[in-house]
Design a protein that fits this description.
- The structure is a single chain.
- The protein is mainly alpha-helical and 85 residues long.
- It has one domain: Arc Repressor Mutant, subunit A (Orthogonal Bundle).
- The protein is 62% helix and 5% strand.
- The chain has four helices and two strands.
- Strands 1-2 form a two-stranded antiparallel sheet.
- The longest helix is centred in the middle third of the chain and has 17 residues.
- The chain is elongated.
- The two termini are 26 Å apart.
């Protein structure tokens, strides 16, 4: 079985995931923002993903540099080291 990602308003789920930071930071051109919002209105998976990202930002927004242990910092750096490869 071949997986075909959903596309709404010519914006695929993969593209939406790549654009979510710009959307949440309000750094998206109006036309693209409207396409993004139409997509998350129709795609429950992407809508849930955007909400999870909002919650993550809310929860981690209160985390300070001092609160992160050296061990946690090493683990996070290791986890994200190969992220864009």
């Amino acid at each position: 079985m071949t997986y075909t990602p959903a596309t709404y308003d010519d914006l695929s789920c993969q593209e939406l995931v790549e654009l979510v930071t710009d959307y949440l930071e309000g750094a998206m051109p109006d036309e693209l923002r409207l396409r993004f919002e139409r997509h998350i209105e129709r795609c429950t998976g992407c809508g849930a993903y955007v909400e999870e990202m909002r919650q993550t930002i809310r929860v981690t927004g209160s985390l300070t540099v001092e609160a992160v242990t050296a061990e946690a910092e090493r683990a996070l750096l290791e986890a994200f080291r190969g992220f864009r490869r």
